[in-house]
Q: What sequence folds into this?
């Protein structure tokens, strides 16, 4: 089970690009706006930002630290943290074995695989819209949003094909290895996309509905929240920051000695949160202007093309936007696939290519279920939720928090205080000392409380008690 040689990030910038690249994706642009709408607007945005910094950031720091200190991906990292005397706290004289804790790692890799499959389906939707948008410009009838949505909704085979193509593209990049694969792709996409997002958000904010949209997004109207809103906020924060499934542990394991983890985590969280807020500024004025009868996971695709249609260079912006969105989805998928592969490499004898193909096939097989959600399972309705929303909720608001809880519990319980403190305290200032105490409190008390609370809420909801 000896780890293979680990290539570290070539540059500090390379790490940021990859970590922000993994965090930044469909979670920000596609999921954040529609979950905000489902939870009533400003009150939810408030909860989301609060949890991003109070809960997400400390957990992110913990995962990066686990990777950096063990130089392993999550399964072996859990094992090493328990077994290595340099890293691990001894509770009494008895030596704890890693065999139970290793399940925490295994569970998070499984969750990672499930998220990859679900993510690949939505990435397929983006591919579909990219093609439709492109082709629509050259056909006499133009680009028809409703028609494109209907074709996608009703054709399960199309969704399976798009998902498989996406997984194949991701796979090829991952087989080429971390450095060349991730840095090259993400490095080129991110700045262009952020620029494009800002330009489009400004355009959207010049619409007459902008004032209402700003009020909807920023006025914390807590009365519109539901009992489940805190649970949705926790799930979304974990998802959007890529926490709880070992991705950030893998990225942390490639960090070089000199990188200060708290600062790195803070930058990643801030960037990711700002990008989500920009996505809201882009989508909400359009949504309020349009007033569609029904929204949901289709929100982004329903609204954005209308803005593009009104722009002078709409075709150019549209194609550029969908290409960038697809690239962002690809970067996040690379992070997901890479972390399953990195774990397989450490615990099996597979080669990188074999591990990647194996993961790709498994993801395609699982992905068939969400890919059929709007066609074959289109009539399913469980307490107002369609099949896709049901899967989304089970995965992001149920399984992901359980996985995040396991990893954070292990770090809080096993990581030696001195080793964690070293990562925070780079000088003798009180500020860094305080930062450590705060982090430790969140890991030991607050994170458990909040995540356990939301899991209980999810279970009660599932059982129909509330
Ligand atoms: N954070 C990504 C997004 O917002 C999704 C993701 C989750 C990527 C977990 C990797 C791991 O789109």
A:
């Amino acid at each position: 089970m000896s780890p293979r040689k680990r290539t570290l990030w070539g540059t500090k910038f390379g790490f940021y690009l990859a970590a922000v690249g993994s965090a930044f994706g469909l979670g920000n642009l596609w999921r954040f706006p529609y979950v905000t709408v489902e939870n009533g607007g400003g009150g939810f945005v408030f909860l989301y930002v609060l949890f991003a910094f109070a809960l997400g950031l400390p957990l992110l720091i913990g995962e990066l630290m686990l990777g950096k200190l063990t130089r392993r991906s999550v399964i072996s990292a859990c094992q090493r943290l328990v077994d290595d005397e340099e890293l691990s706290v001894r509770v009494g004289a008895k030596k704890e074995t890693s065999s139970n804790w290793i399940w925490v790692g295994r569970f998070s890799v499984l969750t990672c695989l499930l998220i990859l499959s679900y993510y690949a389906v939505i990435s397929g939707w983006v591919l579909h819209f990219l093609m439709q948008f492109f082709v629509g410009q050259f056909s006499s009838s133009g680009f028809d949003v409703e028609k494109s949505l209907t074709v996608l909704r009703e054709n399960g085979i199309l969704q399976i094909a798009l998902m498989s193509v996406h997984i194949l593209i991701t796979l090829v990049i991952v087989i080429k290895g971390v450095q060349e694969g991730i840095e090259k792709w993400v490095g080129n996409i991110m700045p262009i996309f952020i620029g494009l997002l800002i330009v489009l958000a400004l355009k959207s904010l010049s619409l007459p509905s902008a004032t209402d949209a700003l009020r909807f997004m920023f006025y914390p109207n807590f009365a519109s929240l539901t009992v489940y809103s805190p649970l949705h906020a926790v799930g979304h924060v974990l998802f959007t920051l890529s926490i709880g499934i070992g991705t950030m542990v893998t990225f942390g394991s490639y960090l070089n000695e000199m990188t200060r983890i708290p600062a790195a985590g803070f930058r990643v969280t801030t960037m990711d949160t700002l990008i989500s807020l920009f996505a809201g500024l882009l989508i909400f004025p359009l949504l309020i202007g349009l007033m569609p009868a029904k929204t949901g996971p289709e929100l982004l695709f329903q609204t954005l093309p209308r803005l593009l249609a009104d722009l002078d260079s709409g075709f150019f912006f549209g194609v550029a936007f969908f290409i960038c969105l697809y690239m962002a989805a690809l970067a996040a998928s690379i992070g997901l696939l890479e972390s399953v592969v990195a774990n397989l490499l450490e615990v099996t004898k597979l080669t990188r290519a074999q591990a990647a193909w194996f993961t790709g096939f498994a993801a395609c097989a699982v992905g068939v279920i969400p890919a059929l959600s709007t066609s074959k399972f289109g009539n399913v309705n469980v307490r107002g939720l369609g099949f896709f929303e049901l899967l989304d909720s089970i995965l992001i608001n149920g399984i992901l928090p359980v996985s995040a809880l396991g990893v954070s519990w292990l770090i809080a319980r096993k990581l030696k205080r001195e080793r964690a403190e070293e990562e925070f305290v780079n000088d003798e200032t009180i500020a860094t000392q305080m930062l450590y105490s705060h982090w430790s409190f969140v890991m030991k008390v607050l994170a458990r409380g909040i995540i356990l609370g939301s899991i209980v809420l999810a279970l009660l909801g599932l059982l129909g008690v509330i």
Notes: The chain has a mean pLDDT of 86. Residues 33 and 299 are 8 Å apart (CA to CA). The first helix runs from residue 12 to 23. The first strand starts at residue 381 and ends at 382.
